[in-house]
Structures are given as C-alpha cells and as structure tokens.
C-alpha cells in the first residue's frame, strides 16, 4: 500500500517539526514537503500533487513579504484544480 502523501505549510518551524514528527509515527503517511511561505508551497504545487495539505491560514506570502496570504481565497481554486486533474477522491 502506498503511503498517504502530505505537504505542510506553516511559518512556525516548531509547528512543522511537531507535525512532521507526529505524522512520521505512521508508516501509512509520508510528509513530502514542508514550506514556511505560500510562495514556496505554490511553487511546489505547480509540479506535485500531495494527497493532503495542512495549511496555516496565517502563513506569509513570501520571505520578503510578511503579509498573511489569504489562503481562504485560494481554497476553492485548489479544489477546482484538483477536480480538473482528477486528483480529488483518489484513495491511497
């Protein structure tokens, strides 16, 4: 059985480390990406399709722009993209 792939976006390294540690306790879960800015995660999502995204709603846009990225505004965009590509509803 293939592991469930997870990407984590959080600007708090402690939260990333804790999430990665807890998730690594299961052989069924593989953390494939961590990012501290939306810019970094968006670049990753251009070429990858993790099955689960853990998103901090107050993560900054980029390292040079600490403004919080309005993730709630892109959730529908992410869902539409997943639906178009057939990624929604895939089972591990």
List keywords for this structure.
single chain, 92 residues, Rossmann fold, 3-stranded parallel sheet, 33% helix
CATH architecture: 3-Layer(aba) Sandwich
Please report the first level of CATH classification, the CATH class.
Answer: Alpha Beta
The overall average pLDDT, rounded, is 83
Strand-pairing-aware structural class: alpha/beta
* CATH-assigned homologous superfamily: Response regulator
What would your notes on this structure say?
This protein is an alpha/beta fold and 92 residues long. It has one domain (4-85): Rossmann fold (3-Layer(aba) Sandwich). The chain is 33% helix and 18% strand. The chain is built from three helices and three strands, in the order βαβαβα. It has helices spanning 13-23, 38-45, 75-85, and strands spanning 4-9, 29-35, 52-55. Strands 2-1-3 form a three-stranded parallel β-sheet. Helix 1 links the parallel strand 1 and strand 2 (29-35). The protein is flat and about 40 Å long. It starts with a strand and ends in a 7-residue tail after the last helix.
């Amino acid at each position: 059985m293939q592991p469930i792939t997870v990407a984590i976006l959080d600007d708090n390294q402690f939260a990333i480390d804790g999430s990665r540690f807890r998730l690594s306790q299961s052989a069924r879960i593989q953390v494939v990406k961590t990012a501290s800015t939306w810019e970094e995660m968006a670049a990753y999502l251009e070429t990858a399709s993790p099955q689960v995204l853990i998103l901090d709603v107050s993560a900054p846009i980029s390292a040079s722009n600490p403004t919080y990225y309005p993730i709630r505004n892109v959730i529908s965009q992410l869902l539409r993209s997943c639906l178009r590509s057939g990624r929604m509803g895939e089972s591990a």
